Amino acid sequence: LQGEENDGRSVATVNGVPLSARTFEEEVARITKRNSNIPDDRLGRIKSNILERLIDRELVNQAIKKAGITVSEDDLKKSFEEYKKRFATEEQFQNYLKHGQVTVADIQKRLRDKKLLETLIDARGNLNISREEAKAFYEKNLKYYTEQARVKASHILLKLPPKPTSKQEKEVLSRIKTIQKRLKKGEDFAALAKELSEGPSKVKGGDLGYFTAKQMLKPFSDKAFSMKPGQTSSPVKTRFGYHLIRVVDTTAERTKSFDEVQEQISQSLRNKKFFKERRQLLSELKEKATIVKEIP
Asked: Which residues does residue 12 pair with via DSSP β-bridges, in sequence order?
């Protein structure tokens, strides 16, 4: 958190420190640039909110400076690496920078500011999450830590038209039964799927990966979840057509242990506390501060 850049004009003073009019105007322009026809009353609220944010930032800045809090480059580097994990690839991160009109320096500044504020609040002893708190949350929300039973399967699909005639249905059923016979003679399921399946998974040899019962149509799920790994179904009809299903693996429903999710829960509770404690800190700082607003 760094002091406001000032060209001599200010929009407010916080404990005698002027807040730059230039910074205020840049923030207003950034928020309003996509809409030049904002009604006056709404524009007034936008400006008021921006001014409050700048005041809050300066109050926190002064409190951090008074407490002598700093952030090491190692901590900042770790925070930045953790932030980048939100993106699956470097390409996605670069796209975010491009389309979000943000720079690495902008992100690093936000992360530094947040880390400084976290450290300030932490010094008050209000961000600690005990094992008992995390355990209580876990026991109250067990349903969120329960993994549903899943099946890993492949299929061969022969499509039916939306309203098939009896003749069309018999023809598709006859074709799928011919494929079934070829499988029984030992032909490779994936090879036949690539050759004959009419579903999008044909390019992967019919592989559907893991899925829960609710992720598939009921007739398909009912059959797949009744089978054992290595088994191949007889023809199964859904609104898409006729399927032959090969089950590859199954996993039973299970509830993750507390130890597996303790760190995740603690971080989530810490984040909730952070915003609550930030509001409390600002309330205390404002109560003691001398704030003079120089615009309406």
From this structure: 19, 293
Q: HSE on the CB side for 104, CA within 13 Å?
A: 8
Can you give the C-alpha Rg of the chain in angstroms?
30
Residue-wise pLDDT for 113-146, tens only, equals 999 998 999 888 778 899 999 999 999 999 999 9
Structure-token pair, residue 252: 């039973």
Q: What's the rounded Cα separation, in Å, for the pair 188 and 141?
A: 45
Structure tokens at 93: 């991160």
Instruction: Say if CB 190 and CB 196 are below 8 A apart.
Output: no
Which residue intervals of 68-186 are DSSP H helices? 73-84, 90-99, 104-123, 131-140, 166-184
User: What pTM does this model have?
Assistant: 0.60
Select from 14, 97, 290, 11 the least CA-distant residue to 1: 14
- Give 243's strand partners: 157, 236
* Banded model confidence at residue 1, pLDDT cuts 50, 70, 90: very low
Q: Is residue 102 scored above 80 in pLDDT?
A: yes
For 254, phi then psi, to 5°, come to -150, 155
Q: Which long-range contacts (CB under 8 A, 24 or more apart) does 264-271 make?
A: 265/134, 265/137, 265/138, 266/129, 266/134, 269/129, 269/133, 269/134, 269/137, 270/127, 270/129
CA distance linking residue 155 with residue 190, whole number of Å: 9
Q: Which residues of 40-65 are buried (b: 16+ CB within 10 A; e: fewer)?
A: eeeeeeebeebbeebbbbbbbbbbbe
DSSP three-state, residue 111: helix
Structure tokens at 293: 């607003």
CA distance 9 to 295: 11
